[in-house]
Amino acid sequence: MTDTGSPAALDARGEGDExxxxxxxDKANYLARLKRIEGQARGVHRMVDxxxxxxxxxxxxxxxxxxxxxxxxxxxxxxxxxxVVDAARMGGPDADAKVKEASDxxxxxVRS
Amino acid sequence: MTDTGSPAALDARGEGDExxxxxxxDKANYLARLKRIEGQARGVHRMVDxxxxxxxxxxxxxxxxxxxxxxxxxxxxxxxxxxVVDAARMGGPDADAKVKEASDxxxxxVRS
Amino acid sequence: MTDTGSPAALDARGEGDExxxxxxxDKANYLARLKRIEGQARGVHRMVDxxxxxxxxxxxxxxxxxxxxxxxxxxxxxxxxxxVVDAARMGGPDADAKVKEASDxxxxxVRS
Amino acid sequence: MTDTGSPAALDARGEGDExxxxxxxDKANYLARLKRIEGQARGVHRMVDxxxxxxxxxxxxxxxxxxxxxxxxxxxxxxxxxxVVDAARMGGPDADAKVKEASDxxxxxVRS
Lengths: 112, 112, 112, 112
Description:
Four copies of one chain form a homotetramer.
Chain A: H1 7-13, H2 27-49, H3 54-90, H4 94-111
Helix pairs in contact in A: 2-3, 3-4
């Protein structure tokens, strides 16, 4: 599932970017959600521009924040499942570094 | 500043929308921040599309969430300052309704 | 309801503290919830002392955080309803100071 | 430091619980912080009982929430470092279950 470096995987993704990390489980799903998030951000901009009712704008901002949070939790889960677990399986000090990185990212999420 | 019903205020806004709420203290500032937020959302979409490193994507999502939160807190402050205080000054049951609405919006923000 | 300075109000509260703010709508309810929160904190301490399973401890910490959040949102609602609305009704610059204070408290809650 | 299975460690803990998980890196530090958190919870209870100023109570609640959050992030880091990495090293399906559990705990923290 994480073997995205094989030609088949690249074909399935329709691209050949050698720098891709390839750990994202369902990329099309994330891209669709992020497109929606972009649209929501544009919607909030329009609501402020039209000076719509503040509480309605805040409701949209909360929905947008929740949608972002949900994307972040999904990406983090993918990261733990692939990068952290893979590093642990390889052994060596890299697993510690990966866990440290993940913990720092979690702290930023919890505090944001 | 909240007297957006006067012709001068309408001219300053360059629009004549009679339903505008006009409580936003520094609209140009909010619009600029929301444009940046839209750009950040587009950036996260691109990072996922290019399969950049998950932790870097999460860092951007946290920054975006913080920026949104800050806009929300500003709008809420404007709302308390204008709508809630104005309703309280007018007397009558409307102040209670405005406080209820504000408290509900705060709860959504705190929980999102 | 906010006239806690009258003898009747003091009798009703069963105390004569002149510095009490008396804006808390249902004090007995808050005290009961905070007693439970103290018990939850003691429970988390015991779980760590007994080295119970980390995920179970985290579940308790999340429940405790949610309970605290809910108390904070209730107190904030009381504050807006009483202190902010009362200050607005009295007129003068005090309402601005109260709103500023409330907005700062909301920001701390949203960011914590 | 995590060798809590040795007789000395058990003596230091004054207990011999065979079910202890022993993954907590610096237990004494967590216990001290949780004692402080209990004291903070008791302090908030007293502030409400004495009807102290709402904003001051909210400031204490935010400090308490932050202290709890920090304990939770530490426990989570310990959990990733030990339980998740160990399960990954052992191989087999247990690592997936541990990651799922950790991701669920992270989601509860982010949303609380």
